């Protein structure tokens, strides 16, 4: 892929992920459990990994986390997002090659679980309350549901992006 085309796609995916993140932050959670949300912006990270590469996806994720915290969060949101995002990114990078593209939902579930684990670790560190670990089963269950949803969405979105790229 030519450099200009790659940079343009990175910019578009970054903007799209930020827009989705900010909109999702304004929507009430589908379940009344603190910290549980769909994580739709993660679809863009997965698409970027498959279409552009891991490094580029990491840059897109980092920009989204920083700007998302500026627009829809704050310092504590940045801390939770950066730790959760870094763990999710690392797990998805490590597992992406182990699964065929049609099982992207599995990679997404593992990433969602890592994200939740990172956020739980930050909460425990900030509050110095190890008792928050009782919340882990709820977070794992939500990671399975939301990760599968975002992974399936990313799989179909990746196919569409690849088809568009072939036409251009």
Mind explaining what this structure looks like?
α2 (42-51) runs antiparallel to α3, α4 packs antiparallel against α5 and α5 (104-127) crosses α6. It contains six helices and no strands. The chain is mainly alpha-helical and 168 residues long. The chain has helices spanning 3-26, 42-51, 54-72, 75-95, 104-127, 136-167.
Give me the secondary-structure topology.
Elements: H1 3-26, H2 42-51, H3 54-72, H4 75-95, H5 104-127, H6 136-167
Helix pairs in contact: 1-2, 1-3, 2-3, 2-6, 3-4, 4-5, 5-6
In short:
The chain has about 170 residues and is an all-alpha fold. It has six helices and no strands.
Question: Top keywords for this entry?
Answer:
168 residues; mainly alpha; globular; 6 helices
Low-confidence stretches: none
Distance between the terminal alpha carbons, to the nearest Å? 11 Å
Assign a percent range to the helix content. over 70%
In what range is the share of β-strand residues? under 5%
